[in-house]
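Hi P.,

Sorry for the delay on this. The queue was packed all week, but I finally got your sequence through. Input first:
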Amino acid sequence: MTDQPIPEHLRPRGVSDDTVEALGKLSEALETVEHARGLLYGFHRLTGRAHITLGEAVDQLRAAGHGGLADHIDRELLGRNVIHGRWTFQVVEEYDDTYYSTFKALEKQARDELVGGRRHLFEAEMKEQQRCHDHPDHRATPDDSGSQAHGNGA
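Then the structure:
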C-alpha cells in the first residue's frame, strides 16, 4: 500500500494554481453558506419551540384565571408571522429555493467544468504539503486495517 492521496484529491493535469486557489475560495464561501443555513434552521427550530411553549403558557394563564391576558397574548402573538407574511418554515424554504440551491449548483458547475467535479483540491494539496509522510498519524488516507481511528486534521 502506498501512502498517496486518492485520485479524487489529485489535481487534474493542466489545472493551474490560480484555478485551484479560486475553487478553494469558492468552496470556502459555500462552507460559510452551509454554516449560515444551519444557523437559519436553528432559528427555525428555536422559534418553533418558543411558539409551542408560548401556547402552553397561554393555556396555563387561562387555567390560572387570567383569561383576558391569555386571550390578548393568544390574539397578538400566538400564530403571528415572524416576518411579514411568513413563519420560519417559509423563510427557510425561500432561502433554500432562491439562494442556497443556486449557490450549491454554481459551485458544483465550477468544479465540474474546471476539475472534473473534484472537491477540496486546495485542502488536499495543503494536507500533502503539511503532513509528515513517515508519521502514522499523517497518512494520506485512512489505514485499511481500521486501527487508526483517531486524528485531528481538518
